[in-house]
Prior knowledge:
The chain is an alpha+beta fold. 23% of the residues lie in helices and 18% in strands. α7 links the parallel β2 and β3 (146-147).
Amino acid sequence: MNLLDEVDQILAISGATWATAVYLFADKSYSSEDLLGATTFGKLANLTLDAIRTPHGELIKSANASFESYLFAAFAAAGAGLVDLSKAFEAAIGGAYFCPFRLNGELPQWPGLCTNANKNQIYVESERQLNIIKFRNPKLNVSNALIKQRTKVGSFVMQACLLSPVGYEPIGDSIVAVRFSPDWSGFPYFADEKAVNFTALNTSLFGSLPTLENVLVGGGVVEWWSPSHLWGWRSLNGNPESYDPTKLLPQPWMLVQ
């Protein structure tokens, strides 16, 4: 029905980004009908609850994949040293939902499950934007860049929540909305418009961590493929330049992240 050709912006929140990102960035070999299903594509009268309970299109088939199989395989791969433990959940998401469309980033070679070796999958709005990025960053590897397909949607924004630093308790007034798009990404607003405090989780692993006081989180955006030092946690308790290197990103964000 070409309804998306009349849409200026798509805002997807949390898990909904998995479906919208696949629709917008899956390889051009997939048609809209392939992704959404021939039974209901362009046929409003067929768009019933009974019809959508049956996974016709590739998107819905992927959503019905056995996530547990990938989750167990990801943690087994982490135990074998094939995947960093902090990346196990990300690998499971990539394998189950993104791999069939080759949008997953690099995955371990787990037997019997979807895998490939995609790397450097920065995502962009257009060939023009990709050319600008390459011109400004000649050393950045964009060999597997993803370019928006299938629609004329002008803006795609993915929203999630930043809870707390690793090992600290997420508290309501410290949670910040973080937004990612093919152009600008980041935290447009501060947490509750003020600096916040974080208390360590009361566990044997994290209980000895110091309380973080007067931490300023949010309040800015960057071009999403920019140097990742801009994504660190910054503490204002007497040392305004103290970044935690464990929170920094070694490369631009990819869709699977």
